[in-house]
Amino acid sequence: MSKLPGWLGQLGAELTKMGERLEELRVEADDEDDRAVHEGAPVTADAVPGAGSAKGAAADHVPPPPAYAPSVAARPDPVAAIPWGMRVAAEAGWRLLVLAGTLWVLMRVISAVQLVVLAFVAALFVTAMLQPTVARLKGYGLPRGLATAVTAVLGFVIMGLVGWFVVWQVMDNIDTLSDKVRTGIDDLKNWLLDSPLHVTDQQINDVAKNLSDTVGTNTEAITSAGLQGVTVMVELLTGMLLAMFSTLFLLYDGKRIWHWVLKLVPAQARPGVAGAGPRAWRTLTAYVRGTVIVAMIDAIFIGLGIYFLNVPMAVPLAVFIFLFAFIPLVGAVVSGALAVVVALVTEGVFTALMVLVVVLAVQQIEGHVLQPFILGRAVRVHPLAVVLSVAAGGMIAGIGGAVVAVPLVAVTNTVVGYLRSYGQEESRRHSPPPHGSTALDTAPTPAPGSPPEDIDDGSDDEPVDHAPKKI
């Protein structure tokens, strides 16, 4: 029994050492868990004894998939999945839709105020024709207001006298024309009866009766057309008054009106628009003056040919030729055909053929000599563009649209060309100066056979300017 206390004492000492050892192991395991959490390594409960307390800290880290798991390809970006050509087409498509919608709205607005627009455009044409006279009178010492008043009054009086003269000539020759038309119809009837076409008198009478019945049946439509003609005359007078007032203000205060328009343009685009405006005005002025000169030459020479061929109403026909000359291509054909028809009905086939020869000769000289010499390259438009623009203008706004179409295309061509050149010059001006090999590529190359002293190698004492020269 004396050995029992000693054995118990040794057992207690061994248990104490074991507890201390377990405590040391638990502390070491906690230290390893803390170090693993800070380093980002995953911690498992089987790593060390007593590591169960690290499960909460390791729960935030997703373990990697096992090696035997199948690989799943990542889905590409939807933008990258669309082909490049389709993306470009879509980008261009919605921009074209926006532009088409804007043009549609603009055309609807112009159609709603068509009378005002055409009156203002006519005022621009008249101003372009009369402005040199105002400048010349101001050069003679007249004040701007007096020079504008004198020019406008003289211009409107001359146009009014021409209109009165045309009406007077038509009214004075209407009886003679009616008699000659009846005589021409009888001659045409006799020619048809004696021609190889074997037309009988009964067939001609049937055609005349059908025409008479058509007129009697459509009396109401003809009456409404006459009332519509009265409405057109009222609108024409209103447009003339608007054009007269607009011309007065444009002649007197055109520069300040242009400066006010520039204030409506964004500041970044204002310099380009300010440079394109005068060039567009010069193009319009050159077009109006050249067209007036060409139209006067056509009217004078064709009118003289009609007069010497004894065709009635030579002066009114010459005035119609002058007015229709403002409609390119189409106007010359219509006015020439009108002169030929009048000659055919009044004087017969031979006179009509002679009038046709005169019209074709004058128009050929106009197209190949007068227009290139008088109008010049500033307002030269391709014939296809002329035909398409005249057709589009006629469909949109009738005769007024056909008159405005070609100068609008010429002015647009001038403005677009200037803005393109201006944009290239601005990009070149704000681009960084060339350096290194780029500077060597842009350096001027001496002409073959130039003396060596003309070549600047930078070895002299004067500083060499390597900045790019402005073009």
Automatic annotation (TrEMBL):
Residues 8-35 form a coiled coil. The chain crosses the membrane at residues 146-167, 232-252, 286-308, 314-334, 341-365, 385-411. GO terms for biological process: transmembrane transport. Keywords: Cell membrane, Coiled coil, Membrane, Transmembrane, Transmembrane helix, Transport. Residues 453-463 have a biased composition (Acidic residues). It holds the Pfam family AI-2E_transport. It is found in: Cell membrane. It is a multi-pass membrane protein. Its main location: membrane. Residues 42-61, 424-471 are annotated as: Disordered. GO terms for cellular component: plasma membrane. Belongs to the autoinducer-2 exporter (AI-2E) (TC 2.A.86) family. This is AI-2E family transporter.
